[in-house]
Amino acid sequence: MPTWLSVALLLALLVLALWGMRAGWRNRTRRTALLVPTLPDVPADAGPARTEPAEAVYVSSTRAGDWLDRVAAHGLGDRSPAVVSVHDAGVLLRRPGARDLWVPADRLSGVGTTRGQAGKFVGPEGLVVLTWVPDPATGTALDTALRMRHDADKEPLLAAARSLVRPGGHRDGADHDSAVPDSAPRPQEEQA
């Protein structure tokens, strides 16, 4: 087979693979938009800050209890740098280059840590996980994972976010321990 033909076939296969990945991501975006049709708007006044803004990496959001089912709608599947702060009214994630994310306190049902989630796996309890319901109309709970840039920022963030979870609050998602296989990361959650 001539070299030019081999190169042309290889390029065609590469283009086909890239097209397939793009089509798959679009389908996931459409499918997850049904689960999460809207996100809460970032309020003009989030109330007093309970923490200083902390640098983090927004890893991804998945359906609660399913650490591999990434939600792609509204840019929730896009990894990005973030600046996280906890306020009286909720948790604010400022994401340069991506849509900012607001987690209202009344929709936050759990705060914990895990060793990994779709898109990032680190050491034990390396990711902060916020379990929340973005759209009460659907009731779909999400696990939003963050990797703090500085270890010193993790505990204050966890404490402040846990203080927002209402006592006796319920978890809208699946139980992590029963939904995650033994080999998978497990969130270490505490409820207020």
Question: Would you give an account of this structure?
Answer:
The chain has 192 residues and is of the alpha+beta class. The chain is built from three helices and ten strands; from the N terminus they run αβββββββββααβ. It has an eight-stranded antiparallel sheet, with helices on one face. The protein is elongated, with a radius of gyration of 19 Å. The termini are far apart.
Short key terms for the protein model shown above:
192 residues; alpha+beta; eight-stranded antiparallel beta sheet; two-stranded antiparallel ribbon; 28% strand; disordered C terminus
**Main sheet makeup:** 8 strands, antiparallel
Global outline: elongated
Instruction: Kindly report the oligomeric state of this protein.
Output: single chain
Could you give the count of β-strands?
Answer: 10
Strand content: 25-35%
Major β-sheet strand ordering: 4-3-2-1-9-8-5-10
Q: Uncertain regions: pLDDT < 50 for 5+ in a row?
A: 170-192
Which structural class fits the helix and strand makeup? alpha+beta
